[in-house]
Amino acid sequence: MDSELKEEIPVHEEFILCGGAETQVLKCGPWTDLFCDQSVKRPKLLIFIIPGNPGFSAFYVPFAKALYSLTNRRFPVWIISHAGHALAPKDKKILKTSEDSNAQEIKDIYGLNGQIEHKLAFLRTHVPKDMKLVLIGHSIGSYFTLQMLKRVPDLPVIRAFLLCPTIERMSESPNGRIATPLLCWFRYVLYATGYLLFKPCPEKMKSFLIRRGLQLMNLENEFSPLNLLEPFCLANAAYLGGQEMMEVVKRDDEAIKKHLCKLTFYYSTIDRWCPKEYYEDIKKDFPEGDIRLCEKNIPHAFIIHFNQEMADMIADSLKDDLSKM
Fold first, then answer.
1. Which residues form a coiled coil (predicted)?
2. CB distance 15 to 93 below 8 Å
3. Which of 57, 69, 81, 139 is catalytic?
């Protein structure tokens, strides 16, 4: 896709209070308020992206832009951060809705269960009930997506894409065998190291380090992901990761069976979080499902260099559904 075309796509950044936690929402397209925005015609559908862990939504902007363009700019594409994975800059206002102000804070919002409730709380307070949804979950975001469908079966979801889905046996995966002792047994060592290294670090130094890192990886990012080096956010990512290793064990076949007609699973052949064996098992158990194995060597972290390829796959899969909208 032409780089100039990408730049023309508007992306609006908001920080909101959701379930008691600061949350970054990046909104691709001209729609910023689906309830009150009178400046443009309200769309009939929202494409909603739920990141992996860490849930830094800024890294998903190129993917969202590609998807927005491929769907002919007809529908908003929104990305939500995980609770506790984003802090608003000091000069940025945190928006509140009357519904969220009156809502109870979500218990253990930075943990696995709390993050699921966090996404449901956002949809309740920021998206009209009659608006159709396409959910896109990446990595642990796939687990959240599946559990959201299970907890609120009447959610108006027409399709859900589970990309590199970590929905089972996480601690048994090649990466999980390395991550489990770090996140579960040495978590507090990680916390202390993060605070000692980054808490005294000036914002300008953090910004320089992140810019330099993005340059070395040949990545562009219009929203500076300063939270990458924020000890509070790193600690919450590690806390969530520890719960993932302990609790994401058995595949929820009941939820998959109930919502199979809406689901598209997309596995990578080079994924050390959900290896090919996991694809073969679920394909055998649900032969009628839309369960795909990538043939393009797209890695688990597709948002680094394979945004266009993943957006192409999703847009192509949505053609029939979106033509009816």
1. none
2. yes
3. 139
pLDDT in tens, 147-160: 999 999 999 999 99
Residues near 171 by Cβ (< 8 Å), separated by ≥ 6? Answer: 177, 179, 180, 245, 246, 249
Peptide bond into 156 cis (omega under 30): no
Among candidate residues 82, 85, 118, 300, the one labeled active-site is 300
Tell me whether residue 300 is one of the annotated catalytic residues.
yes
Q: Is 317 a catalytic residue?
A: no
* Chain segment 45-102, per-residue pLDDT in tens: 999 999 999 988 989 999 999 999 999 999 999 999 999 999 888 888 898 876 655 5
H/E stretch holding 129 reads none
Cα 46 to Cα 39, 66, 79, 111, 223, distances in angstroms: 17, 15, 11, 26, 22
Query: What CA–CA distance (Å, rounded) separates 235 from 231?
Result: 6
* Domains of the chain, earliest start first: 11-170+250-318 (3.40.50.1820)
Residues near 136 by Cβ (< 8 Å), separated by ≥ 6? 47, 48, 49, 50, 145, 160, 161, 163, 314
Residues 174, 266: Cα–Cα separation, whole Å: 19
DSSP letter at 274 equals S
The pTM assigned to this predicted structure is 0.91
Instruction: Look up 138 and say whether it is catalytic.
Output: no
CA distance 97 to 104: 13
In this structure, what DSSP letter does residue 2 have? -
Residue type at position 187: R
What's CA 185's distance to the chain center, in Å?
26
HSE, side-chain direction, 13 A CA sphere, residue 86: 29
